[in-house]
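<instruction>
Derive structure tokens from the sequence

<record> Sequence and structure tokens follow
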Amino acid sequence: MRVPDWKPPGTQLDSDQPRVSDAGDWPRDLPKPWLVHQGGRRDGSTPIAWYVEGVRQFLRIAAPAAANDRFVKKRAKPLIGIPVVGTGRGGAGHKAGDIVKELLPELYQAVESYDCDIALVTFNRVAYTAAIRARADYNLDHSVWPNELDERLREDANRLAEEAKAGKLVLFLGAGVSAGANLPMWNDLLTQLARESGVSAELLKEGGAFSQMNALDRARILDQRLEKCGMAIGAEVVAALKKHKCHALAHSLLAALPVAEVVTTNYDSLFEQASESVDIPVAVLPYHSTAEHKRWLLKMHGCVERPKDIVLTRSDYIRYDARRAALRGIVQAMLITRQSKEEKATDAWKLVEKLLKELGG
């Protein structure tokens, strides 16, 4: 891919020249970047308003374009990521809090004006802490809850926030979490594999014979067809999922929560990737020991890193029944930990380690 020739408008901060440029041709299965000139004076004297104006120009151009971007078609609204501008090499590294404080009103207004979602992305703890503080201060004077949330839902959200801060939450993740990263949902995955195995379009259409079958039976048929072609269904699932390399906003938000235990039926590794990005490495069960990790992720149906362990067909479920019984024991231990007094946590973790040894992990 080639980034087009692009020249910033020079060092004159009062220049009227545009500061935003399209990054040119980009793979359609990846989020598209835009180039914005945010290089202020190195002595830190550049006004914060100058950085904010760059964001304003970017949103005016990029937000409408994002609405038509193929990559975000599965989202209800386009998602636009914006860094804490100017705090890298832009000369405002010591002003992260002030930058965020000035940015927030613009971003809240932009989500209304352009009907999009905006993620303010931080790359270090200083910027992240500044963003959290600025948002809390802003929320004291402004109502930023969506109008669709009634009082009961707001109370539920606040209660969950308190539970999260107290470390009392356990995450259960399904396919919907990864949909924002363009990964296929369950039925979409089966349909994709069916096309690759030669199932006719007539059978695959809505209301067709294949679509009306039980998901486990569809997987069994696909397994048999792929095997005749010298292909393994686990390997094909891996191929379909591993080409998606970017985790979604949902992964990042969930990974940032102070939770120690996570359970998923997903095969992908995007939550692990998101956890690494927030400096919380994950022990993936039943493959790794939890001894040196603050967080573990239990994969009930296997992982793309181990194609032979992927549970997809009816025979897979039968074959893995004994193994899954031990996995259920881990889940029960986890729930006991969260529902008991804190002093019982150590005993529950010992039970997890015992079950892992039974699984050979």
User: Anything to note?
Assistant: The longest helix spans residues 48-66.
